[in-house]
Amino acid sequence: MTEQFFGLTDPGKQRKNNEDTYIAEITADNQFIIACVIDGVGGYAGGEVAAALARDIILKRLEKPSGEIIPIMLDCFNQANQKILFEKQNSKEHAHMACVCSLALVDIQNNQFYFAHVGDTRLYLVRDKSLVKITHDQSFVGFLEDSGRLTEEEAMKHPKRNEINKALGLDKHLGDDKEYVETGQSPFLTGDMLLLCSDGLTDMVNSMAINAIVSSDGSLKEKCHQLVDAANQNGGADNITVVLVHNNKQKVQFETAKPVANGNKSANEKINPLTGDDPLPAQKLLKTKNKTGMVTLLFVLMLFFFAVSAYEYIKNKDNPPSLPMQSTVAVKRQKNKQEIKLQRVIDQAKGPVLILSDTSFTAPLLISGAIQINKDSLTIKAKGKIVLQSDSGYKGPAFQLSAKCKNVLLDSMSLVNFQVGITSFNNALDLKNTRFINCPVQVESTYTFPDKKYISGKLSPAAFRVDSIPLNKKK
């Protein structure tokens, strides 16, 4: 493989400073290409600072990514968001800074890409010379354009084009909103290309012109320069940043079997290299001998089989063999890939919050063995529809909290057909927007006390409450 990615940023024609930045490099383990465009907002210097902070956080978090990709990308955004908020509190000069960002992780080997997005930077997929917009602009004008109420040309000229409603550094609880960060994954086929760009390009150059450039011949470097030049030629009103990633693997081609030129001869039958006619006489003789020997061997084997069968029949005619005793050993169920993946993600969770995305765990997720939670404190939050369903014949719980757990929160998931939904110790369990469907015992809690000690007190009333709608939809 040759050129796979390239990035370029330019201040444009009307800005003195450049608040954009980008990432176009490969991870340390050579597994993923990191492609990212970050556009800073918040006045002179502030936007640059926010964009730089986000870039540093993302690169550090993605040094050696392991585990589920979408949750890792969400963690990148959460860490960047917290870092920007922290810096804003300590700098009056940068009190209004924030940034918007589109991030893609490209797995060339497995022909997949994953993305996370906040704001009005954009991610496009180029396939068969067609430009497909993947992300949605998180702005009022972007909504009008995506819903068909405005044409692209009208949206490009709208006076509120650059007013965004979501960014890193604006909301303290970024991770609590399922819809704040747009995420997804898609196949990345041979010949496909990704374009990530800031609004400095898309405000100046329409999609038809962009597609003409990225679909033309030339290197990724040449195409990036052509995109920046086109934006500047149309006014260059803002900073311009573009990143291109190309799946340039060679397509696998299979040769069609050629028909034999001489009559109806088998494709495996060799032709006399001297005359082009039938095989040499010695070769024919060898084939005839091989066939005769094979027939003789099969005949001998058949006779042996019949002789053994007759012997066994006579031997067991009067004394039929007794039936074997049935084994009473329980067969241990083999966990499926989804279960194994979920357990691994929980075991490898870094930090107090773990986000499970329905793009990684398809519903329903069949459970044949309890998912173990052994961490002191952990919030497991579902993004999208996460449903855990008991496999047929399984009688255990969906989740089993160990005695080590002190505070475990399960947020926005459904448990279906479990005899016991969750087992816990010492009131360590906290629930939010969790549903139990056809679960006779929803929560089973065990209390552990020191051995041989006198215990006094009583169990406190449960603090759970029942709602018909999720908490975040209440007014």
UniProtKB/TrEMBL annotation:
SUPFAM superfamilies listed in its UniProt record: PP2C-like
PROSITE patterns recorded: PPM_2
Superkingdom of origin organism: Bacteria
Molecular function GO labels: protein serine/threonine phosphatase activity
Enzyme class of the recorded protein, top EC level: hydrolase
EC numbers for this chain: 3.1.3.16
InterPro entries in the record: PP2C, PPM-type-like_dom_sf, PPM-type_phosphatase-like_dom
Coiled-coil stretches: none
Matches recorded under Pfam families: PP2C_2
Keywords of this entry: Hydrolase
Signal peptide: none
The protein's name: Serine/threonine phosphatase stp
Origin organism lineage: Bacteria, Pseudomonadati, Bacteroidota, Sphingobacteriia, Sphingobacteriales
The gene coding this protein: stp
